[in-house]
């Protein structure tokens, strides 16, 4: 499509140009009609069937326009001016009316669900707000269920999602800036921030990265996340994603930024750190002592998810002498009939769990859950009875899998699963020394990782160690004690409680 196609005075020429661009687009609707006392003046509207609310266009635009135009003078010289003024003066009750001066601007409006009104003799096109496509109702998030807390979740509709945030933060300082990304999809992205809290350097960096995107399509927030993050090679996420409006609202009030992408219910929150990825919104809806215990359990679960299979391989194959005598004899007795070395045993069971996890994800809810539970029980029992793996290996794999599910962030848990296999390989080569080398490698990677200029390991190093951010990371202090916003975002207004 050409750029900056000018609007002609003659309606027929404009209609011809638009029809040539929309050739073979059968869902584009064209309606031409006559107005005026003698029905001697031409108008046309263009819209895409299914993207607009036709009742709105009919009742609040066409009907008032046709009724008011009956009384216009039939003079062909003045009727177009009178008709144009009739529309501008509010005889059309559309919620938003604007003018565009090029065909391209009109096409962009039509493609997002607006209605274009063309007037014969005028070199402008009037755009009427008429979006009204089908959308999913607000439901409880499927990936972040809580025992106590709000039950509403984001949908695929951007406007609905911004309203859910506005309902929670009734402050004019909450800003919503719209940006389009993707040359062909022209996906709307809403940048949300609290103006008197957010750090200007962080905000400018995020806007710059969004403006620098040059791709054909951005169909989901996951694609946008990969395009703007610091290190797309890393298995660890540098951006949070959530379906919960309360999580986004709380993050905005901490000085962070949210990106809402049209057509996806997952909202991005940035910057993200190791500490924020280990938090859950439910931590603030339960007693602070219980929430603190839950957080400590998550950190322990993270270490278990990474190290348990590797430790089994290292101790079984290289360092059995580290075990108490009775435990060493028991471990040896359970492996008498196992024909494979510990590393093959561990890898086979871990891969089986990954197969079950992937199968459960691809199948529908009840079926996927059944596959995971029944498949795990049957395969595990059969493997032990056949002597392929030891009972202790089954226990370790089960505990490791459960531990990974305790982490609030699915993407972060997936990154730990990746490093679990790295640690297993290191353990099979050098035993405990290999595990130490693997942990050093992972730790070095985490320390070097940044999230929009913020160290990923905050607050365990750098900024966080020099401030009070640790008060709300491993444990959660009572709300009344959390007087200051996290320092890692460098907020303008640091104090949140008196």
UniProtKB/TrEMBL annotation:
Pfam families documented for this protein: GerA
Superkingdom, natural source: Bacteria
Classification via InterPro entries: Spore_Ger, UPF0353/GerABKA_families
One GO CC term, this protein: membrane
Membrane-spanning residues: 296-318, 363-382, 388-407, 419-442
GO biological process: spore germination
Keywords: Membrane, Transmembrane, Transmembrane helix
Keyword Cell wall biogenesis/degradation: no
Protein family (similarity comment): Belongs to the GerABKA family.
PANTHER family per record: LEUCINE ZIPPER PROTEIN 4, SPORE GERMINATION PROTEIN
Name under which the protein is recorded: Spore germination protein
